[in-house]
Specification:
485 residues, alpha/beta, Amidase signature (AS) enzymes, 11-stranded mixed beta sheet, 15 helices
């Protein structure tokens, strides 16, 4: 039995029947990591000792007849911008290459409380700024389906680890598509919950009004189990919503009859690869054949989403990254002159090119002479974009679209053209600007590379997303296909 190919809910059944042990499972995942990670390069830090200690504790509970959660003993990879007590957390940056947090993020504490084991910390674009994982200060993670191609970004390590069987589930963060796009490129399920549904306490901030932690999983059931563990109000996060706890697995019903699904015309226009568009249309037709009503609709301010996003996100990044100055924590350049010289050299040497580019853009937009013309105007347009969704959801239960205009592109192809790289997120960034939940589910392959279907829902209506995705999954087999490593 290849344990690394099983879902969390399949593994849970084996654990409670005592057909396998949590220790055996975690050793199997670590054997898989050893076998494939030299080619995938998902992990920055491995924590085998901690994972096995956690697994043995779960085995003891089971042997004592105690009831355990569906995530007990399940190895989970954590994106390396999510703080872990006593485990190095780099955010993929040289400037934090020596940083070990003295505390864990709320989501990590919740997973550990559920009995999950921490397999390690996985790679990302530096400070989550990127769409390909090539901006990491350490190495570029590769796509398990074709190691000459990117896994997507910024949560590429999280997606690649799950797709490769080097973790059963993982956590990522999504600021403009950084969960959904890698999920699409790597052929797994990835979800960005509603802004405020999951605590951001302990997430190293990129753009605080856009960032959201969410899960990667092999199927929709595992995604729901992960949401059960990580969602909920957190007094440590001032933006955490006071929502009642719910069991997201209760929405896993093979039934979309009566649901009205809208397809924004702006996401299906020129610029979307025709083969990708064809697969999304086939997915629409599949849902229609299962009883849903599917219609084309419009989000009229979509054309303004990209510049709006990059002004707001970079302005917030400029502010958030000001704290990395070599004084309090992180790397400090030695052999400098006065304090100002130390600041400048530490930041110049500690940040990569893409991070510097975004800090400069954000600082420019926030300058007193430019604030009204750029940042304030972007905030006003953001309101218009959100209103587009409000109007659409008066008519539709969900919106459908491609996740990305293309499949995974070759490593190095877009590194010298930032605009083309930014366009990779054209279908996802509006969801963050509006604070909506979004999910990517595999819907087919183009040239052997996965393609994701994006589902977009009303705020805090993750249940309808899960129900629709589960129905699609139960009537297709894309989620059962694995890369040949």
């Amino acid at each position: 039995m290849q344990l690394f190919l099983l879902t969390a809910h399949e593994i849970h059944e084996l654990l409670i029947k005592k057909e396998i042990s949590a220790e055996e499972l975690n050793k199997a995942i670590y054997a898989r990591i050893e076998a494939v990670d030299d080619r995938i390069q998902a992990y920055i830090t491995r924590t085998a000792g901690k994972a096995l200690d956690q697994a043995r504790a779960v085995d003891k509970q089971i042997s004592n007849g105690e009831k355990v959660t569906p995530l007990a003993g399940i190895p989970i990879a954590i994106k390396d911008n999510i703080c872990t007590d006593g485990i190095k957390t780099t955010a993929g940056s040289k400037i934090l290459s020596n940083y070990t947090p003295p505390y864990s993020a709320t989501v990590v504490k919740k997973l550990e409380a559920a009995g999950a084991t921490i397999a390690g910390k996985v790679n990302l674009d530096e400070f989550a700024m990127g769409s390909s994982n090539e901006n990491s200060a350490f190495f570029a993670t590769r796509n398990p389906w074709d190691t000459s191609r990117v896994p997507g970004g910024s949560s590429g390590g999280s997606a690649a680890a799950v797709a490769a069987g080097a973790a059963v589930c993982s956590l990522g963060s999504d600021t403009g598509g950084s969960i959904r796009q890698p999920a699409s490129f790597c052929g797994v399920v990835g979800m960005k919950p509603t802004y405020g549904a999951v605590s951001r306490y302990g997430l190293i901030a990129y753009a605080s009004s856009l960032d959201q932690i969410g899960p990667f999983a092999r199927d929709v059931t595992d995604c729901a189990l992960m949401l059960n563990a990580i969602c909920g109000h957190d007094p440590l996060d001032s933006t955490s919503a006071k929502q009642r706890a719910m069991d997201y697995t209760s929405f896993l019903k093979d039934d979309v009859r009566g649901l009205k699904l809208g397809v924004p015309e702006e996401y299906m226009v020129e610029g979307i690869d025709p083969d990708v568009r064809d697969l999304v249309i086939k997915a629409m037709e599949k849902l229609e054949s299962l009883g849903a009503v599917v219609e084309y609709t419009t989000l009229p301010h979509t054309d303004y989403a990209l510049p709006t996003y990059y002004l707001i996100a970079q302005a917030e990044a400029s502010s958030n990254l000001a704290r990395y100055d070599g004084v309090r924590y992180g790397v400090r350049t030695e052999g400098t002159g006065d304090v100002m010289d130390m600041f400048m050299k530490t930041r110049s040497e500690g940040f990569g090119a893409e991070v510097k580019r975004r800090i400069l853009l954000g600082t420019y937009a926030l300058a007193a002479a430019n604030y009204d013309h750029y940042y304030l105007k972007a905030l006003k347009v953001r309101t218009l974009i959100k209103e587009d969704f409000v109007q659409a959801f008066k008519r539709y239960d969900l919106l459908l679209s491609p996740v990305s205009p293309t499949t995974a592109f070759p490593i190095g192809e877009k590194m010298d053209d930032p605009l083309q790289m930014y366009l990779s997120d054209i279908c996802t960034i509006s969801v963050n600007l509006a604070g909506m939940p979004g999910l990517s589910i595999p819907c087919g392959f183009v040239g052997g590379l996965p393609v994701g279907l994006q589902l977009i829902g009303r705020p805090f209506d993750e249940g309808t997303l899960l129900r629709t995705a589960y129905t699609f999954e139960q009537n297709t087999d894309y989620h059962k296909q694995y890369p040949d490593l």
